[in-house]
Amino acid sequence: MSYTLRVAHQGPQRVAVIGAGPAGLATVKELLAEGHEPVCFERAASLGGVFRRVEDDGVCWESCRLVSSGVITGFSDFPVPPDRTGHMKAREYLDYLTRYAQTFGVMDHIQFGTTVEHVSRRPEGGWEVRTSTKDGETHTGIFNAVAVCTGLVQIPNMPDVAGADTFTGQILHSAQYRNPDQLRGKRVLVVGGGESGAEIAAEAANHAAEVTLSLRRGVAVRPRNTRGLPHDHQITRLNHSPSAWIYQTRHPDDRWKRRIYRVMFFPLLVGERGLQATSRLLYDILPLFHPRRLVRGRAALAEARTALRVRRLTEALLKESGGRVLENFGTKSDDFVRAIALGRCRRVGAIERFEGSRVCFADGSSIEPDLVIYCTGFNQQASFLDEASASLPRFLHTFNPSVGKDLAFIGQIRPPFGAIPP
Q1: Minimal CA–CA distance to 125: which of 414, 405, 422?
Q2: Span 360-367, average pLDDT
Q3: Parallel, antiparallel or unpaired: strands 187-191 and 229-230
Q4: 205-211-217-221 Cα dihedral, nearest 10 degrees
């Protein structure tokens, strides 16, 4: 499906779209298809949102790849090329978005280098949008509706840790990481086990002198690829079935539902788990003992042992997370787990404090890193809106009931697994 913003008024409506990332581009395209007049404001000099790496406000590093495959990430009305159905690099996805915008005539409706300063509702109806350019010019426009497409990745979240101001090393956020040259020969501490943390820790394990990964708790990890294909190609009703999901429900107010569900769905669950176990045996375990592997002797044996260690570590991390796979925001890359299994990365607990050159952890251990990289996510902000308009909750994560349906927040929710587009 594609993002569609339908305005209630009859006839073509003028709609302000804020942000030219994936959500903003799709919104403009759909508004054009509906016969409306969108104007997209993008503060950067090019489209792509967070996938811009060449500009100061981009947050991607050189080797960054999407954690969802092209099959899952591509828009349904603009499939990715056959050679990009795997995990695209950030620059490849940026190229895809550019071709999408050009194909559907979106480019002509984007004002680059334009920052939205303030959005306010007019007493007589509609919205007033004040913008500024990099040259210092200000403009005000009147619109029937506004679509906020500024995304989830906006302001780096920097934890407030005691003694950080005394640290003698360097502290960065993942948004400031660019390439392995920043890591070479250094003792690196990566904080956080989300997707950025997992990827940067794995890259650091191949280039830094020493790597430590700090996690407050476990994480739900899924491999990027399985049997040579992106793991999300396996998203099927078998692997993510209603019976398995309902059977797991643990909400305290749903005890009576849980009893009924477990009786009704137990036979289906047994069948599904049997098929899943068979699939795991045939495609995950038996290939480790394939004759072509066995003839390689010690190398194949070492590879099998590493694979088993990775599996055990993955299961331990899931157990520590306090939930099941479908109850977590998944980390869709297990390369950092492999680095831990091979001894190239060491895991420690949460940071408790800084003491000069030393970082102390909740488990009582400490290290002296040269570089700390916080992979602790981002905060959202819509400073151009008043607090009431930007407040939560929102109907379908899109509309603020107290404001109305002429203000929409597009692409402001992240699925546990999968991609925000299409």
Answers
A1: 405
A2: 94
A3: unpaired
A4: 0
Using DSSP, how many helices (H) and how many strands (E) does the chain show? 10, 20
DSSP 8-state assignment for residue 214: E
Q: Which amino acid is at 269?
A: L
- Backbone dihedral angles phi then psi of residue 125, each to the nearest 5 degrees: 110, 150
CA atoms within 13 A on the CB side of 336: 30
Instruction: For the beta carbon of residue 313, count every other beta carbon within 10 angstroms.
Output: 19
Cis-peptide, bond into residue 369, ω within 30° of zero: no
The answer to whether 127 touches 121, Cβ cutoff 8 Å, is: yes
Q: How far is CA 377 from CA 87, 158, 180, 192, 196, in A?
A: 21, 8, 20, 9, 8
Q: What is the pLDDT of residues 276-307, one digit of tens each?
A: 788 777 766 776 666 665 556 667 677 778 88
- Burial tier of 252 (Cβ tally within 10 Å: 0-12, 13-18, 19+): exposed
Taking the C-alpha atoms of residue 169 and residue 292, their distance in angstroms, rounded to an integer, is: 48
> Cα 289 vs. chain centroid, distance in angstroms?
35
Q: Does position 3 have pLDDT exceeding 50, yes or no?
A: no
Determine contact, residues 63/40, Cβ cutoff 8 Å.
no
> Residues 203, 206, 210, 216: is their CA dihedral positive or negative?
positive
Residue in the block written with tokens 């913008």? 131
Task: Read off the pTM.
Answer: 0.83
**131, β-bridge pairs:** 116, 139
